Task: structure prediction
Amino acid sequence: MSTTDIKQVVKERYGQAALRVKNGGSSCCGASPRVGRGCDPITSNLYDAAQGEQVPEEAMLASLGCGNPTALAHLNAGEVVLDLGSGGGIDVLLSAKRVGPTGKAYGLDMTDEMLALANENKRKAGAENVEFLRGEIEHIPLPDNSVDVIISNCVINLSADKGQVLREAFRVLKPGGRFAVSDVVTRGEISPAIRQSVLLWVGCVAGALEDVEYRDKLAAAGFEQIDIEPMRIYRAEDARELLYAEGIDVPILEAGMQGRYNVLFLCTGNSARSIMAEAILNFKGRPNFTAYSAGSHTTGAVRREALGQLEVARVPTQGLRSKSWHEFSQSNSPKLDFVFTVCDNAAKEVCPVWPGQPMTAHWGAADPAAVRGSKEDVERAFRDAFFILDRRISLFLCIPFKTLDSLALKKELDNIAQTMTPVTNDR
Result:
């Protein structure tokens, strides 16, 4: 998606939002009208009642942000404040009151309709120390070292060139100036499917940076004493309607946004194969994967040969136990992202309903516990099962989860099952 495409769609959407407010409606992060003074989940209840009384109703209704930067910024009388992407002007008007008549509050916006609405709100508020500027946040129309404090409310993530925005912000700030913005950041990467959606860019989702990347860009622009303070934490579930409208798989995306996946391995007895798979993934996949195992008809004990094979491979065995799969079908059970059966018997059974709508695959492996013969024969069977599971889990961990859609991911999981396919030996 080109920078020009993003910018044009943002201008159109935010222009429409301003017109809705002027016509008696409201706006929500550039997407759809909101009810009352909030649009769940991101834009609701950002300003308290006292702040609402300080600005015109239209300024409050036109707020498209994800936070309240005026609550983060320490403003002093006589200072100069700049709001990047000022919209209907709510944060500019609130800041103008705090810096007083000897200070100045600028608002910068590229949307003509928003500028017209902001200037009307300025007139209604009687604010004489306010000026709204037309321009782009990548090219701020102010001289170097001219601003004490920069604020912004869920606008920088709409830019396709955030590094340029931050460099410009640093340029216009005076030495010792402050940068206090509210924005959306992510834990873990955003999938390409999200990045490529124009609607989700305007909806304050697709343009979000990882928190670490945001810090790096701030530092690269010259900022020091960088701190990110979480004000609200959202899950993909909070944007379910918007994501599903764009064809995004919410359960898998949600796990990816958090950088964490829950995986359950199933077999009949939960004494050997699924136990080894649980231990291997917890060892190799940490900290992004949490593995569990369970059985449809548990034996109640873990085979010592399975524990021995794990110990030989230096895989931790603490806490391993034989568990019924009903432990993972309760309302308070972990939300599962993947469920893998490792024996044919379990694959043929009717499974419980798992929390989280997980993706499933069958990774059948011969049952080492069914082997009868010498001690060496049994040990070899457990060693072979371990090797097959270890190989498959290693391939699983190499999947680029955030770059695949659901169909492509399911194909990858099924392909792994063909790796070192064993001769089935279920009891």
In short: The chain is about 40% helix and 15% strand. The longest strand covers residues 173-182. The first helix runs from residue 3 to 22. Residues 28-41, 197-206, 421-427 have pLDDT under 50 and may be disordered.
